[in-house]
Amino acid sequence: MPIVGSIVKGFLDLRGQLVSDKNPVDSQKEVLQMLLEKAKNTAFGMHYNFTEILESSELEKTFSERIPYFDYDKMDAEWWSKIHEGSNDVSWPGNPDYFALSSGTTGKTSKRIPVTNQMIKAIQEAGLEQVYALSNFDLPADFFEKDIMMLGSSTALDNVDEHMEGEISGISASKIPAWFRGYYKPGEEISEIDDWDERIDRIVEKATEWDIGALSGIPSWMELMLKQVIERHNLKNIHDLWPNLQVYTSGGVAFSPYKRSFNALLGKPITVIDTYLASEGFIAFQARPETNAMQLVTNGGIYFEFVPFKPEYIDQNGALVKDAPSVPLSEVKLHQDYVLIISTVSGAWRYIIGDTIEFTDVERAEIKITGRTKFFLNVVGSQLSVNKMDDAVNHLEDQFSIKIPEYTICAKKIEGEFYHCWYLGTDGSAAEGEIVDCLDSYLKSANKNYKVARSKALKGVKATLVPISIFHDWSAYNKNKGGQVKMERVMDEGKFQEWEHFAQKKIS
After folding, report:
1. Which of 34, 50, 107, 427 is most buried as measured by Cβ atoms within 10 A of its Cβ?
2. What is the largest CA-CA distance in the chain?
3. Which residues form the GH3 C-terminal domain (predicted)?
């Protein structure tokens, strides 16, 4: 009998009965008040007169009116760069001990996003809330005695100018509490290996020694690791080695494009739980099994605002126009795409994180990620968001019985006419002409703007099928293999030209 597991499960069940949920709207008002109070004497707080904002009877409204939007480049150029020059109390009291390196999607230049001790504490508390929410999933007691594989970036951080730098998954894993270390795999020694391939080799080598009950990490890199374990140990599926694997905590990107290829690696169904941990903080997690939506962490270190994702509020580079209106959590509506704006205990203010979301349950503050602002394909009025592209790729998988976990697309001008050019990552086979017809037909039926564009400026669709490994090689080429890296779903023509040259060279 799993005694320890029974105790843990009993505690989680009891806590779920005793602790009442706080109203998300009230929590958000308290978080904004706290953020402004804490930062009012920083350079940023004094510049924008937080003290006066705090006196307002309409705090959320006044805050949104007084503070402009900041993307990373603007926030870094005007404020965070001063931290690197030696200034204290810039946009948050003191100086951050960590900087999260993030290129978001594959790219050669990393962003350096401050991570304060308050943010690390907020991430840990949100992680604990997610653990508490496991009581909703009716997992057996023995699950709570199994190992947990966390596949992220290296926990060996770089010491730069009196602070540490690394990806947020590496920073978080380097700060795991002592009680968790016995469950944590691949363990501290392997997790510190910087080279992705070397780290995976060590994981594959040690895999037979572990009894994994849960996996956590970005789907594309998790799949790659599982495939290597299966191949090295001559398994039919991963459950041949880890029969007690019951949970996969996905994060970073939507899981739906990977569902078919991921499930092909399993011997039986498992529970998939979505999470939303970004370099800027722990934003949301799936709290109940009845939905795959995620609940915003409204009582932590992040205040959220939402800008309706409409073409008139987005410029041609995928950035928000400066007068785009925002709404607080109390005013959001169901099934409306929003650009997510955050203010945090790491000193990000009205920060455009780059993701778009929609609410599936307003009362519970549950959301799903619908795409990226810069992955909104609207060069010729087609208005395709990532979730529409994901749906189209899922449709292809169903129609042709193939797995397509990776893809990228560009609106490319060919002989004076615009085409949507798709590269689809699959190890299956299908006629590219039939793929084109199916894609085009599906998107016409699913998106009226696309249908109009196809009758006017969008001349046609092209599709190229390439092995999935080419997408992984592209990440390695961009020095971003593993960790938090996500593939660009939409590229501009310049980047796409580089991608096509790379892909065609690999094929030949």
Report:
1. 50
2. 71
3. 390-493
